[in-house]
Amino acid sequence: MIGKLLVANRGEIAVRIIRAAKDLGIATVAVHSAADADALHVQLADEAVAIGPPAPKKSYLSIPALLKAAADTGCDSVHPGYGFLAENAEFSDAVTAAGLVFVGPSGDAIRLMGDKVSAREAAARAGVPVVPGSKGRVEGIEAAREVLAETGFPVMIKAAAGGGGRGIRIANSQAEFDQAFPQAEAEALAAFGDGGLYMEKVIGRARHIEVQVLADGRDAIHCFERECSLQRRRQKVWEEAPSRALSPALREELCASAVALAKAVNYSGAGTVEYLYDDAADRFYFIEMNTRIQVEHPVTEAITGIDLVAEMLRIAGGEPLRLKQADVAVKGHAIEVRLNAEDPARDFAPFPGTVETLRIPGGPGVRFDSMLYPGYGVPPFYDSLLAKLIVHGETREAAIDRLVRALRETEIGGLKTTKPLFLALAADPAVRAGDVHTRWLEGWLTDNAAALGA
Ligand code: ADP
Ligand code: ADP
Ligand code: MG
């Protein structure tokens, strides 16, 4: 079993992990950059270690600094959270080589499933349909032309090491492609340290549907799906579970394919298999696997009653999966919205500042995962997520109504946030009907962004 955990992250996810560890009686050590000395995760952990200056490269992304913090405080394990080093195979290997438990998959599993190209190949081998596109990495523009003959236009150029909505370009014509391909290569190299690219046909009007899995290296189960079709710049802003687009038969097929893939690669820990679902053609396609806890995991927790982070800690501690597939059932409907420190009326410009007043929503079916407290200064160095508001209701309708109620209760004084976006979306007929796809929000914003100043 795990006795003392280093939480190698910051923000709301560090707070979330500390809470799960405490519930299991595990001692916790927070790490923080110079910009985060007063952060909530530092206050809530049993101990805290300063690991470097504000720049992530010198603190939250520094493997030597993190390993030293773990050694100095006598930790036996490390949880990477999401972002930062969560999908870094070298980090998983380094933690293990230092004699510590990595709360996540092995370096080899991350290399296989964290690289989007080898993950596509593994999915295809496991019989999971993938988006038509290149076989492996596309080595140069000549090889790309052959793939284009199959995909046609528009086509997506994607970075093998991309993530968080970054490293993806669309080309609508040969001329656009010839210009975009070398740019994408240079950008991927600069952003991810790996210029590897692959290509996919663009699936138009698709929904983003993903399946949560839990596995222990031998067995795997799923915890049903989440739909995350409301996206801006390919980043999720609103997530829900279950998806209203799936029939029971298709849900079973989709979830079974995720379990088959997890088993085929002897996956261990929590993971998410992401798909695009084309309603019109009634087909789904694998796009990638995230080998970590995801931002939107609480909607699954709401509908299944499972504490996914606690299960990750138990699995990493060597326990076999406690849950059988038959133990996992869905109750009601849950929605999460991401409250970011951004001004939706000004093209979502970042809005760091100080939280002057704070009113946290509550009551039945409401969860607020955040690192905010009155007086907290939001540093400008990290991503803009301030809080996740998660609501749960008997039906999707009831969940949306509850979302509106909870959003109206929420007050984050002193900062601009994405709250007005969610109030407007909750009132929109297409959102109410669940009639959306991954490009829908961008179109909606073109017409409605100016009205979000309130
Ligand atoms: P999720 O997949 O959990 O819904 P996101 O796609 O928003 O969440 O990613 C979660 C966080 O991790 C974001 O802060 C995002 O910027 C970051 N992230 C994800 N993948 C990468 C990557 N390959 N490189 C850098 N940051 C990443
Ligand atoms: P990331 O690693 O950044 O999360 P993904 O491959 O998961 O990248 O894709 C992010 C989003 O980009 C998807 O949710 C979807 O909206 C869009 N997308 C990705 N691939 C395709 C595709 N082949 N066709 C249409 N949209 C796509
Ligand atoms: Mg993704």
Automatic annotation (TrEMBL):
Record keywords: ATP-binding, Biotin, Ligase, Nucleotide-binding
Domain Biotin carboxylation: 1-446
Pfam families (UniProt xref): Biotin_carb_C, Biotin_carb_N, CPSase_L_D2
InterPro entries linked: ACC_Biotin_Carboxylase, ATP-grasp, BC-like_N, Biotin_carboxylation_dom, Biotin_COase_C, CPAse_ATP-bd, PreATP-grasp_dom_sf, Rudment_hybrid_motif
E.C. number(s) listed in UniProt: 6.3.4.14
Enzyme class label: ligase
Catalytic activity: N(6)-biotinyl-L-lysyl-[protein] + hydrogencarbonate + ATP = N(6)-carboxybiotinyl-L-lysyl-[protein] + ADP + phosphate + H(+)
Domain annotation ATP-grasp: ranges: 120-317
GO molecular function: ATP binding; biotin carboxylase activity; metal ion binding
PANTHER family registered for this protein in UniProt: BIOTIN CARBOXYLASE, CHLOROPLASTIC, PYRUVATE CARBOXYLASE SUBUNIT A
UniProt function note: This protein is a component of the acetyl coenzyme A carboxylase complex; first, biotin carboxylase catalyzes the carboxylation of the carrier protein and then the transcarboxylase transfers the carboxyl group to form malonyl-CoA.
This protein's name: biotin carboxylase
Organism whose genome encodes this protein: Aureimonas phyllosphaerae
